[in-house]
Design goal:
The complex is a heterotrimer of chains A (386), B (101) and C (167). In chain A, α3 runs antiparallel to α5 and α13 packs across α14. By secondary structure, chain A is mainly alpha-helical. The longest helix of chain A is centred in the first third of the chain and has 34 residues. Chain A has a two-stranded antiparallel sheet with strand order 1-2. A two-stranded antiparallel sheet of chain A has the order 3-4. Chain A has a two-stranded antiparallel sheet with strand order 5-6. Chain A is 65% helix and 4% strand. Chain B is mainly α. The N and C termini of chain B lie far apart (51 Å). Chain B has one domain: Helix Hairpins, CATH 1.10.287. In chain C, α1 packs antiparallel against α2 and α2 packs antiparallel against α3. The radius of gyration of chain C is 21 Å and the shape is extended. The model of chain C has no long low-confidence stretch (mean pLDDT 85). Classes of the chains: A mainly alpha (386), B mainly alpha (101), C mainly alpha (167). Chains in contact: A-C, B-C.
C-alpha cells in the first residue's frame, strides 16, 4: 500500500531528530556554552564510574524528570494544566512532516520524494503549526494560578503572535524568488548554480561576460538570493520560539521560570523537550528555505548521478546520491544548531519593550521593503530577459 | 463531492443555530463575541460548500473577505470590551442596559 | 463511504460537540475559548475535504492562531469570571422557543433535498493558492484593497479604544 512509504519517512524523521539529535543537543548546549565561557561543563554523570565526557547527562535529565513528583498547584485548572505542555510540544513535532530531507529519486518504480507530506502549500502548513504552539504558552501561565506564570504567559503570547506576522512576511521574498510554496520544489530550485555577475549580461550592460570571470558561480541558495530575508527570518523564528536572547517569558533570572514555573516532573519535561526540539526544527526550516536543503553546493543531482553511473550502475548510483544528499541535509541542520547555540550564549537577554520594538518598528517595515525590492528585481529581470 | 451538498448546508445551519443560541442566551460579553465568530464560521462553511459544488472560486474569495472582516471586528470589539471593563468593572451584558426601556 | 466522507462526518461531529461545549460551558470562559479552537480546527479539516486548501490553512493561521488568542488574552488580562445561563422569563417563552425552532427545522428538512442545482466537476488546482491568488488579484482586486483600509481602520480603532485616557 502506498502509505507504507509515508510511515517510513515519518518514522525516519522522528527517530533521527527526536531520538538521535535531541539528546545530543542538550549535551551540545552544555559543552558549547562551556567552551565559549572557558569552563569544563557538565561531565559528572556516569555509569559505574565511566563518564563519557558528559554524554550521559541527557539520560540523567530524563531519569530525573521522570522520577520527580508531579505537582499541580492548588486552585489551578487541572485540565488546562495538563494539555498546555502537549500543545507546546505537538506543533514542533508535526512540522517535521513537511520538511524534505532528501530529493526526488527514481529507482525504477516511479519517483520517490523524501518528504513525508509533500504539500502544495507546505510552508503555510509550517506557519500554521507554529501559530498553534502559541496555545501552550497561553494556557500554561493562566492555568497555573500564579502571578509569575500569568506574567510570563502574557509576555510570551504577545511576543509569539507579534513575531508570527513578521515571520510570514520575511519569507514572502523567498516565495516570490522560487515561485512555489512546496518545500521539495524550493530545495530542488536551490540545486543549481548561477553566475554572480550574470545580471550585467541580462540587463545588456555588457554584451558578453569575459571568460576569465566564468568561474564566479554561486549556488542558487536562498541566503544568496535573499540575504536580508535570511537574517530577518532567523531572528523572527528564534523570537517566535522564545529562544534566548528572546526568552523574556521564561526570564530565568527575573520571573523565576515564567510561564512554566508551576510545572514539575515530566510535564516540565514536555516543555523542556519542546524547547530543545525547536532548535533542530528551526534548523531544518532555515536549511530548507535558505541553505539549499539537501542540495550539495556546486554538485547538482544530475552531476552526481551522472558521475557515479560508470562506476556503480544506475540503481546504486541513485542510492549513493540519496545517502550523500541526506547526509548533507543533516550536516546543514547541525550547522544551524551550532549557530543558534552561538547566538544564545553570546547575546544577553533583550528587554521586553526592546523585543516588541524590534518586531513592530524594525522587522515589519524591513520585511515589507524586502518584498517590494524583491518584486522590483524580479520584474526588471523578467523584462530584461524578454 | 464526498458528501451530499445538503449535509454540508445542514451542518452550517446547525452551527449557525448554536451560535445564535449562544449570542442570545449568554450574558458574558466575551462568550457572546465568540458565538458571533461561530456564526461567521458557519456562513464560511456554507459558502465553501457551494463553491465546491459549483466549481466557482468566488466563494473562497468571499470566505477570505469574511475572515478578514471577522478579524477586524474582533479587534475593535475587544477594544470596546476593554474600555467597558475599565469603566464598569464587569463584562456582564446586563450591566450595560442603561438605554433599555 | 469513501475515506473523505467518513472524515467529514467525524469532523462534523467534532465541530458540533465543540460548539455546544463553547456555548453551554458556564463555569470557565477559557474552556469556552479552547472549545472554539477545537471547533475551528475541525472546520479547517472540513474545508480541506471541500477542496478549499488555502482557506483551510488561513483559517488555522488567522482564526485559530490569532483571533482566539486575542480572546484568551483579554480573558487573562481582565481576569474575567463566567456567568450563569440566562433563564427565560417564563415557561411559556421556553415552550414557544422550542416550537419555533422545531418548525424551522422541519421546513428546512422538507424543502432542502432536491432544491439545489447539480454538482459540477472541479478543474485542476481548484482551491489551491495559485487559483485563489489569481482570482484575488485579478477579478477581486478592489475588495482586496478595500479590506486593507478596513484593517487599517480596525487597527487605529483598537489602539484608540484600548488606550488609557490621554492626559
Amino acid at each position: 500500500m502506498p502509505e507504507i512509504g509515508v510511515i517510513i519517512k515519518v518514522l525516519f524523521m522522528v527517530l533521527v531528530v527526536m531520538a538521535a539529535l535531541l539528546p545530543v543537543i542538550t549535551w551540545v548546549e552544555r559543552k558549547q556554552s562551556a567552551l565559549m565561557q572557558d569552563r569544563i561543563g557538565a561531565n559528572r554523570a556516569d555509569i559505574a564510574g565511566i563518564t563519557v565526557i558528559g554524554l550521559l547527562h541527557p539520560l540523567a535529565d530524563v531519569l530525573k524528570l521522570l522520577s520527580k513528583e508531579d505537582v499541580v498547584p492548588a486552585g489551578a485548572n487541572r485540565v488546562m494544566h495538563l494539555i498546555a505542555p502537549v500543545l507546546a510540544l505537538v506543533p514542533a513535532i508535526i512540522i517535521l512532516a513537511a520538511i524534505p530531507f532528501g530529493g526526488v529519486y527514481d529507482f525504477g518504480s516511479g519517483p520517490v520524494s523524501l518528504v513525508a507530506a509533500d504539500l502544495d502549500w507546505g510552508m503555510l502548513y509550517i506557519l500554521a503549526a507554529g501559530s498553534i504552539a502559541t496555545y501552550g504558552t497561553v494556557l500554561a501561565g493562566w492555568s497555573s494560578n500564579s502571578n509569575w506564570g500569568l506574567l510570563g504567559s502574557l509576555r510570551g503570547s504577545a511576543q509569539m503572535i507579534s513575531y508570527e506576522v513578521t515571520m510570514g512576511l520575511s519569507i514572502v521574498g523567498i516565495f516570490m524568488v522560487f515561485n512555489t510554496l512546496k518545500l521539495q520544489e524550493m530545495a530542488q530550485a536551490q540545486d543549481a548554480t548561477f553566475h554572480l555577475l550574470g545580471f550585467l549580461e541580462t540587463f545588456g550592460w555588457i554584451s558578453h561576460l569575459p571568460s576569465w570571470l566564468s568561474w564566479l558561480q554561486v549556488p542558487m541558495w536562498g541566503v544568496v538570493l535573499q540575504p536580508l530575508g535570511f537574517v530577518m527570518f532567523l531572528t523572527c523564528i528564534m523570537a517566535e520560539n522564545k529562544r534566548p536572547p528572546f526568552d523574556v517569558p521564561e526570564g530565568e533570572s527575573e520571573i523565576v521560570a515564567g510561564y512554566h514555573m508551576e510545572y514539575s516532573g515530566m510535564r516540565f519535561g514536555l516543555f523542556y523537550t519542546a524547547e530543545f526540539l525547536e532548535v533542530p526544527v528551526i534548523g531544518t526550516i532555515v536549511t530548507t528555505l535558505f541553505l539549499g536543503g539537501w542540495a550539495i553546493p556546486f554538485l547538482s543531482t544530475q552531476d552526481i548521478i551522472g558521475g557515479l553511473i560508470p562506476v556503480f550502475g544506475v540503481g546504486a548510483a541513485t542510492g549513493l546520491c540519496l545517502i550523500l544528499q541526506v547526509l548533507t541535509f543533516f550536516l546543514k541542520v547541525i550547522f544551524m544548531i551550532w549557530l543558534q547555540m552561538q547566538i544564545r550564549w553570546t547575546l544577553p537577554r533583550f528587554r521586553y519593550d526592546q523585543v516588541m520594538d524590534l518586531c513592530w518598528k524594525i522587522m515589519l517595515p524591513l520585511s515589507l521593503a524586502n518584498i517590494f525590492v524583491t518584486g522590483l528585481a524580479i520584474l526588471l529581470i523578467q523584462e530584461a530577459g524578454r | 463531492m464526498p458528501v451530499p451538498l445538503e449535509h454540508v448546508i445542514g451542518l452550517s445551519a446547525v452551527l449557525f443555530a448554536i451560535g445564535t443560541i449562544g449570542a442570545l442566551t449568554r450574558r458574558n460579553l466575551v462568550v457572546i463575541m465568540m458565538s458571533i465568530e461561530l456564526m461567521l464560521n458557519a456562513v464560511n462553511l456554507a459558502l465553501l460548500g457551494f463553491s465546491r459544488a459549483w466549481a466557482d472560486p468566488t466563494g473562497q474569495i468571499f470566505v477570505l473577505m469574511v475572515i478578514t472582516v471577522a478579524a477586524a471586528e474582533v479587534a475593535v470589539g475587544l477594544g470596546i470590551l476593554i474600555s467597558l471593563f475599565r469603566n464598569r468593572d464587569s463584562v456582564n451584558v446586563e450591566d450595560v442596559s442603561l438605554l433599555k426601556w | 463511504m469513501s475515506a473523505a466522507a467518513v472524515l467529514f462526518y467525524v469532523f462534523a461531529a467534532m465541530t458540533v460537540v465543540a460548539a455546544l461545549g463553547m456555548v453551554l460551558n458556564v463555569r470557565n470562559t477559557v474552556a469556552s475559548a479552547m472549545s472554539l479552537v477545537v471547533a475551528m480546527i475541525a472546520l479547517a479539516g472540513i474545508y480541506v475535504i471541500l477542496e478549499a486548501h488555502l482557506v483551510a490553512v488561513i483559517q488555522i493561521l488567522v482564526y485559530a492562531g490569532a483571533i482566539v488568542v486575542l480572546f484568551l488574552f483579554v480573558v487573562m488580562l481582565l481576569n474575567l469570571r463566567s456567568d450563569a445561563f440566562a433563564v427565560p422569563r417564563s415557561r411559556l417563552v421556553k415552550l414557544l422557543g422550542m416550537v419555533v425552532t422545531g418548525w424551522i427545522l422541519w421546513v428546512f428538512v422538507r424543502l432542502l433535498p432536491g432544491s439545489l442545482p447539480a454538482v459540477k466537476a472541479l478543474p485542476e488546482g481548484f482551491g489551491g493558492f495559485r487559483d485563489v491568488g489569481r482570482e484575488l488579484f485579478t477579478s477581486f482586486v478592489l475588495p482586496f484593497e478595500v479590506t486593507s483600509f478596513l484593517l487599517l481602520a480596525a487597527i487605529v480603532g483598537a489602539v484608540v479604544l484600548a488606550k488609557r485616557r490621554i492626559d
